[in-house]
Structures are given as C-alpha cells and as structure tokens.
Amino acid sequence: MDATDRRIVAATQAGLPLVAEPYHAVAEAVGLPVAEVMERMRRMLAAGAIRRIGAVPNHYALGYRANGMAVWDVDDARVDALGARIAQLGLASHCYSRPRHPPDWPYNLFTMVHGRDRAEAERGVEAIAAVLGDAVRARDVLFSTRILKKTGLRLGREG
Amino acid sequence: MPAPGAPRLPALDAIDRRLLDGWQRDFPLEPHPFARLASEIGITEAEVLARLHALRDAGMVGRIGAVVRPHTAGCSTLAAVAVAPERLDAVGTEIAALATVNHCYEREHALNLWFVVAAEDEAAMLETMARAAAIAQAPVHDLRLRSEYRIDLGFPLQWN
Predict the structure, then answer these.
(1) Which range of residues forms the domain containing residue B136?
(2) B111 at A interface, C-beta within 8 A
(3) What are the start-end ranges of the H helices in chain A?
(4) Nearest chain A Cα to B65, which residue?
(5) Has residue B148 been placed in a domain?
(6) Quick check: A52 and B141 CB within 8 A?
(7) What's the predicted TM-score (pTM) here?
C-alpha cells in the first residue's frame, strides 16, 4: 500500500457515498482519475490489503443482541490447527490467537459468536467446545454489556 | 430460532434484507455499482439508493465500504483493562473518545473494558495505550494479534 492507496482507503473509510457514481466521488475527493481509483482498489482487493468491499450491517440494530467473546486456553502447540479448524467450520465470525497475560488472562484462542439472544450465542459456544474437545484447559465467555464505540478502521489520527 | 422473548427483528421487507445481506462482500467495483444491484434485484437504481439511505439513517447498515486488513495501514491491537465498577462509565466514555480507539465494549469479566487501538504506527498506538492506562489508573493489557484463522467476510444474517 503506497501513500496514494492510503488516501483512497481513507477516503472510503466512512463508506462510499450513496450516489449513482460513488467511485467518481472518491476520485474527486482524492484528485485522481476514477479509472485509477478503481484499478488501485482492484489491486488492493487482489493483494488482500482490502478484504472486501461491501455492506457492513449493524448486527446489534438488526437484532443480534448477544455478542460473546468465547476464549480458550489450549496448548500453544495445537492452537494453530484448532483455530484453523474452527474457522474452516464457520463456527465463529472471527477467530484469532493472541498472547496470554497470566494470571489475569490465561486464554490464547479467541472466537467471536453472535446470537439474537444469549441462549443462541451459547449454543454457538458449545459447538466450538465440542470441536476443541479435551484440548481445552480453561474457557470463558465474555458477553458485551455495552457498546461504547464501534467505527470502521481509521487510518492515522483524526481530531 | 431465538428463544421466546428475544428481540424481534425490525420490519424489513425482502428487498431490504437482500440489500443488507447480499453484498457484504463483492460489492461491484464498477462505475455504476448501485445500478448493478438494481438490475440484480429488479428495481430501479433510484430505489436502491433511497432504500440504502433509509437503512443507513435507521442505523441498520453502518456503511458500504472497504474492510481493510489489520496492520496493512498502521498498527493495531486489542486492549483490555480492569476498571473499578464505579468508574467504568466515566473511564469507558473517555477511552472511547480517543481518536485512535475504534471499538470499545464493556464485557463481563474482571477485565471489563475492551477496546481496539488502531494508529498510524506502533509509537502512536503505544501512546494511546499509555493514555488509556492513565485514564483507567490500571495496567492495560496489549493482546496483540498472533494469528488470524478466519478473515472477516461478514456473516450471513438469519431472518427467521
């Protein structure tokens, strides 16, 4: 991603304008020909720097009220294989490995589950638990009780 | 199916649902993308735009835009801190207001405040973490991504 790519991404962060020719509007904002803007976005998509271009629904507003971060302590030697398995099965919207911070935080595998209520989310957690099986040494589910801020990734500093 | 008493979905018709769910990825990268959606659904471009405006104004869709891979542009991490319950409101509000914090949630755990820091580089990110620690008056855990097993492709909405 070069500086021009970054400007394009920054110009689309808050979303494409809802007008008939949104890429033209982005091109005008960054001062480039629209063909170049679209070509650069195509390249960033192909390279994976842009994961997707699409609608980002507000799951909470759409009724998905239960957002659970299910976390697991599994053997470091197995975490990659297990994480890949959970991802492959589509059991979590996000699946990551992150470092433990003992004693406050003994977990190294993070899986995000969503449901319209806690019972539905908890069924998703149990499906993951069944796959992880005896690899699990400790586990927890942290439901979010309040969303204080949720915005798309922003580049650099603003305000 | 949600349990009885679960929140009901807002009243959305089949076209709204398709607009919300059908293009979470592969939104057309072409000069008239909304015209493409319109022709696939069988309505006019003007109606697609009007419905998306309404869905956005109602808070159902945050945006239609690019989802960027973490660390592609800048540096980010997931952070967690244990805040005294009586200070959680004030601390959460203050940390959420930082420009380099882009998600901030209260969660049920001793580590009760979770947020994502995304900044232009590592120094700026660490500066935000230090500010958050000063606001919370507690150590902030830096749970930096080690591996990601599932990339963010959105997830299918269920309407039943």
Answers:
(1) 75-143
(2) yes
(3) 3-12, 22-30, 34-47, 76-88, 118-132
(4) A15
(5) no
(6) no
(7) 0.76
